[in-house]
Amino acid sequence: MEAFYKVFTFKKPLKREGLSTWYCFDRSQLQFYVNQNQKWVQANQQKTFFSQEWVSWYLQNHQDKHIKEVRLVTYPKKVENSSHYGYLDVSPFHYWQIVGAELANQVQKKKLALEIVFDGLTEAHLLGFFSGYAIGCYRYLDFIMGARKNSKNLSIFLNIENVNIDFNKVLNKAKAWATGQNLARHLTNLPANMASPEFIANIAKGIFQNQQDVQIEIWDEKKIESNNMGLLQAVGQGSSHKPRFIQIHYRPLKKRYKQPIALVGKGVIFDSGGLDIKPSAAMRLMKKDMAGVATVLGVMYYLMKTKLPIAISAYLPLAENAVDGKSMRPGDVYIARNGLSVEIHNTDAEGRLLLADAIDVAVTQKIKPRYLIDIATLTGGIKTTLGLEIAGLFANDDDLADQLLKSASMAGD
Question: Which of 278, 305, 383, 406 does the annotation list as catalytic?
């Protein structure tokens, strides 16, 4: 897991020659720290993001000529937007996450030693910046093809000005956030011939087994059958990769919780559509149909690392919807775990089948969940209706829906 984030150094560089320096500020201050004598210069007006005017101004007034590059970044004035109740506005956290990701891209391209100066930013700003930087460092091809030639470790120095927070706490939280998100991205990026149900189950086992406050249980095809998960079996019966079902229970601080939150993730490792086969263009990226499982695994990793005082359980069904003589057919009838009979009209509507069995496991626990949140790439109609960048949310609890919308807006989703 160490490969998913970068580690920062808390010290000032001994030699400033060749450094790329990024000065990051809260716009409410608009005071720029410009030399080693801690001389402050009051700026008269705000320029645009990554403004060349600011760079020119800084280089003309800065006494240290050894610095190779300077970027001045401030958080802009909040622009009130009544559209969609403000849910589509860029939050301070997400703004600085974008800045951090952009910084990672610049540094990776130019291979510069880096100095970052923070002045007056809040914990949310810094959490966004560092998580964004680590997220921006992720390169899928590095994991498939190995590290790029001539790659080298970069020196990153942090200079802190007028920031009264626990940096180690923020960094650890940012690492957990970025690692969880990059884990989800990486599992979704992997090709289906590598990321089989068994492979993903083993990844989850390696992360969560023998960890404090976490219990993990993995059901193979025999255990799935003995637990009457007929719909999950039906989806996966046409594939040589047999289904798996993962349960992860996070219970921190050895406290007794009345009702946990249940997370269910869709995990179709590849969706050909089955006998009702998809067109080739629609099938091309169907390795991503397990993104719900990948997302929940990332969330559970974050919880485990940050020790948040909340009880959460994950229920993750994994199967491949393949074409074979054993595949389910239109008109077939299967028995769900809750005892209901289900007739198949279209084999490309497989997601609701395995999710139904997983949800039944969640709601029949000895202690029933307080909330159940299902995360799934379901269905293509969402993309048609809302486009490529907005997810659909359906809820039978308005208060829960409002909490999810506000959290998503803060996180940039």
Answer: 278
- d(C-alpha 100, C-alpha 204), whole Å: 28
Distance from C-alpha of 281 to C-alpha of 118, rounded to nearest angstrom: 47
Q: What are 105-155's pLDDT values in tens digits? A: 877 776 666 667 676 678 888 899 889 988 988 888 767 676 555 444 455
Amino acid at residue number 54: W
User: Integer distance in angstroms from the first to the last C-alpha of the chain?
Assistant: 24
Whether 135 and 98 have beta carbons less than 8 Å apart is answered as no
Query: Which of the following is catalytic: 16, 251, 352, 383?
Result: 352
Q: What is the pTM assigned to this prediction?
A: 0.86
Per-residue pLDDT tens for 372-382? Answer: 999 999 878 88
Q: How many CB atoms are closer than 10 A to CB 37?
A: 6
- Joined together, the tokens standing for residue 186 give 């990486």
Our answer to whether residue 352 is catalytic in this structure is yes
Three-class DSSP labels, 218-257: EECHHHHHHCCCHHHHHHHCCCCCCCEEEEEEECHHHCCC
- Beta 312-321 vs 156-161: how paired, if at all? unpaired
Please report, as a single letter, which amino acid is at residue 339. G
Q: Rounded CA gap, 270 and 192, in Å? A: 6
The string of pLDDT tens digits covering residues 349-359 is: 999 999 999 99
**302 Ramachandran zone, left/alpha/beta (phi>0; psi -120 to 50):** alpha
- Catalytic residue check, 278: yes
